[in-house]
Structure formats: structure tokens, C-alpha cells
Amino acid sequence: MMSALKRVIGILGLLLLAVPLLVSGQEDHKHQSDPDECAQLPAPLKLVVAAMNGPGIKLDAMMKRGEMNALSPALQRFDVVLHPSDHILLTVTPKAEKKSEGQNFAGYVAFSVPHDGEYRVSVDSTAWIDVLDGDVVVERTKLNRRMQCGHVHKSLGFTLKTGVNYWLQLSSSKAPEVHLVLTPEESS
């Protein structure tokens, strides 16, 4: 009986040591990099991965669309602070928001583009990404699967036009902060 109790205590001790490792792995958003996959990425995605690994500029997402200085695409990481979803009036309710349990975070970021063309929105963690032109969702033109290279979790493409004030709606995030890189495709 005593040896069985010692064995149970030993197993519980090992589990307690493993929990911080599991939690820290979930919190830092870093995916296990595969050097072969990193080497095979097209040049635009290699630059996005490098930008995501660099320092970020803190940016508070808006709780609703309104007056905000619009971001411009650049090879720069933004550390976007989101808000609890139940405080945000989403323009588009993503499928993930309907299914997701627990606390979700969301927010809006205004941006505009300097010229017509293809642009890429990349994030470091699971979040639903919608680009809005007014109340109209801009269709995605590219979808990269979850990458096993650096901190990029997902990277989506959109065809955008100059002179339009777009809104990036980030939602269904389990993390209160999302790292974001917004780049023009041809210079990435």
C-alpha cells in the first residue's frame, strides 16, 4: 500500500513539473520550427517570418469602428491588444466565434494601402481575420496553412485598392494580444 502511494505521489510530482512547461508553450505563440519548411518558404513569407520575429509596436485595437489613424503596410510587427469579445460589436460574426468556448478577444484596426494590389495579413496565433470595406467583407485571395516556421500561425492574402479605408476585424482570439504583420505582396 505504501509503495503504491509513493508511486502515485511520484507521478503527481512529475505531472506538476510538466504543467508549467505545457502552459508556457501555449502562451508564447511560438510554433516548432521546421528548418526544411523555413528554407522552402517563398521570399515574401521569409520576410514576413523575419518581421514577426522582430520587435513589435504596441497598438490598442478599437472596440468599435470610429476615428483611428490608419496603419500602412510595412515589414513591421504590431502587438495588437484586443478586448473581451462580449464588449465588441462585431460587424461579421465568424464561424469560430459561434463554436468557441471560454473567453475570446476581439478588436478593430484601421488601415489603408498606398496602391492597388495584393496584401498579406499575418498573425502569430489563432484568430479570425476579416478585412472590411464598410460593412462588406473583402474576399480572401490566398490562404497559407499553418506554417511550421517562426512565429507566423496564419497568413492570408487580400486584393485591396488605394483610397479605401479598410478595417481589420480580429476576433475569436484566445489570447488578449495578437502579433500582426501587414505587408504588400510584391515588396514582401
Percent of residues in helices: 25-40%
Based on secondary structure, the structural category is alpha+beta
- Total strand count, please? 11
Q: In the CATH hierarchy, what is the architecture of the largest domain at level 2?
A: Sandwich
**Regarding CATH, which class of the largest domain?**
Mainly Beta
Number of domains: 2
Our measurement of the CA-to-CA distance between the termini, rounded to an integer number of angstroms, reads 65 Å
Segments where pLDDT lies below 50 for 5+ residues? 8-30
Strand line-up across the major sheet: 1-2-11-5-9-8
Radius of gyration: 19 Å
Q: Tell the overall outline.
A: globular
CATH topology of the largest domain: Jelly Rolls
| Biggest sheet record | 6 strands, mixed
Question: Residue-averaged pLDDT, rounded?
Answer: 80
Give the helix/strand layout.
Elements (H helix, E strand, L loop, with lengths): L1 H26 L7 H6 L2 H11 L2 E5 L16 E5 L1 E2 L10 H5 L5 E7 L5 E7 L4 E6 L2 E2 L2 E5 L9 E7 L5 E8 L3 E8 L4
Provide key terms for this protein.
Jelly Rolls; alpha+beta; six-stranded mixed β-sheet; 2 domains; 188 residues; five-stranded antiparallel β-sheet; globular
Structure description:
There is one protein chain. This protein has four helices and eleven strands, in the order αααβββαββββββββ. By secondary structure, the protein is of the alpha+beta class. The chain has a six-stranded mixed beta sheet with strand order 1-2-11-5-9-8. The longest helix has 26 residues, at 2-27. It has two domains: 1-30; 33-184, Jelly Rolls (Sandwich), CATH 2.60.120.
